[in-house]
Design goal:
418 residues, mainly beta, 5-stranded mixed β-sheet, 0% helix, elongated, disordered N terminus
């Protein structure tokens, strides 16, 4: 950390530091999480299993592209629960929206008559969305029909022709039955799966367009329902490293969420951790750590990270609001750079440090104009932080002088105080 201290009169211009704040990367999977509270960027389809002989997604004929009222529904009641999951007895009840979200989508409903419903998301894989996190839940009636006629749920990753992608975890399909792994048996005829997170690595498909299909269907005899809920998000497929200079400070390596197991190894190959986060008390620049992860769909992914400490440099631009004598305000802007990560945010603190000392103003703006409330010495501090938690702080000390009231007529150019 470094601090610049300069005592100035407010009528002088402070030294200018030229840097550019790095911007946040925008979303690479818009509305995958239904944050727009609609099905924008989604394809909504319906089908009917009457006379088909199988309720599976690939056996049905699908039509439409827009949401159908009552069959494709945005859920926003974060305190609500699904009424068919036994009201919490004997198991926990299914929330309409999973923890961490304000909305989800339901596809299907508790009507019957051979209905089948699907939602499809199309995306081009790049380095910013190569990790897909899908959260889903399922509710089935169980009429004890033959398996091909039972209510059905399917999550699949396919190309534009409907062919499953060449990745290890390209499909999860389940039909209603008692004792399904991961499901609750609410009674003899209701089975449901609580919100489940599946992490899928699309790293090998960078540059390709993929289709994420989530579908549910009623039974093939027309009298029993099957439906589901879903919400998604995407992230870079990478290890998040929190390791700030100076070298030797503790390091934290955080693997992507969405996997059920994690196995960390150091450079010689020794197992050093089995949690999503790995804490290294005495790290060294240049060391490499590798994590092997397995998802709920048995997808195995491996990532590596080489330790390099991050250094942040923050600077302040401070100028008076006017060149006239005895101004009472300043124009402030903060800039920062990071050796490795992006600057996530900055924070200002303006405090009086002479008589009547105390904090006068706090802001998260990158640039603004501020007028002091009093006369005296002020410390203006700007702190910049990266998304990994590394930071730097810089400050200036400013003297706010009063504008003395004088009844004197002087005939002189306006530039006299410049």
């Amino acid at each position: 950390m470094k601090t610049y201290r300069k005592i100035i009169l407010i009528l002088f211009i402070l030294l200018v530091y030229d840097h550019y704040t790095q911007a946040q990367v925008g979303s690479s999977c818009p509305n995958l999480n239904f944050s727009q509270l609609n099905f924008t960027d989604w394809i909504c389809q319906i089908s009917n299993s009457s006379g088909v002989g199988n309720t599976g997604y690939s056996y049905l004929t699908w039509t439409g592209s827009s949401p159908v009222s009552g069959r494709h529904t945005i859920m926003t009641d974060i305190y609500g629960y699904d009424s068919h999951t036994c009201n919490g007895s004997p198991n926990a009840q299914l929330a309409l929206v999973p923890d961490g979200f304000n909305q989800s989508a339901r596809f299907g409903n508790d009507n019957t008559m051979y209905e089948a419903d699907a939602i499809i998301y199309q995306m081009t894989v790049d380095s910013n969305n190569a990790l897909l996190l899908l959260h889903f839940a399922v509710v089935f009636e169980d009429p004890s029909h033959p398996a091909d006629a039972q209510p059905n749920f399917e999550l699949r990753f396919q190309d534009s022709n409907g062919v499953l992608l060449n990745i290890p975890a390209n499909r999860y399909m389940v039909t209603s039955a008692p004792g399904i792994p991961g499901f609750h048996d609410c009674s003899s005829d209701i089975h449901w799966r609580d919100w489940t997170t599946v992490g899928v690595s699309l790293f090998s498909l960078i540059g390709q367009t993929v289709y994420i299909v989530i579908a549910a269907s009623d039974c093939g005899y027309g009298g029993h329902f099957g439906y589901g809920y879903a919400v998604g998000e995407c992230r870079p497929m990478e290890i998040n490293l929190q390791y700030c200079c100076p070298e030797g400070s503790p390091a934290i390596l955080e693997a992507p969420e969405g996997f059920v197991s994690y196995l960390w190894r150091n450079q010689p190959g020794k197992v050093v951790g089995t949690n999503r986060k790995l804490f290294i008390q005495i790290p060294y620049d240049g060391e490499t750590y590798t994590v092997t992860m397995m998802s709920a769909m048995a997808d195995v992914a491996t990532l590596s990270c080489t330790l390099v400490c991050d250094e942040v440099n923050a600077n302040i631009n401070c100028d008076s609001t006017t060149y006239a004598c005895y101004p009472g305000g300043v124009v402030l802007s903060g800039t920062a750079t990071s050796k490795i990560n992006k600057i996530a945010y900055g924070e200002w603190n303006i405090s009086k440090i002479s008589e009547n000392a105390g904090t006068e103003y706090v802001s998260g703006d990158s640039a603004f104009t501020y007028f002091f409330n009093d006369t005296g010495y002020y410390k203006i501090t700007y702190a910049a932080y990266t998304k990994a938690g590394c930071a730097d702080t810089t400050s200036v000390i400013v003297y706010s002088r009063p504008a003395y009231a004088m009844d004197v007529n002087i005939h002189a150019p306006n530039e006299i105080c410049k």
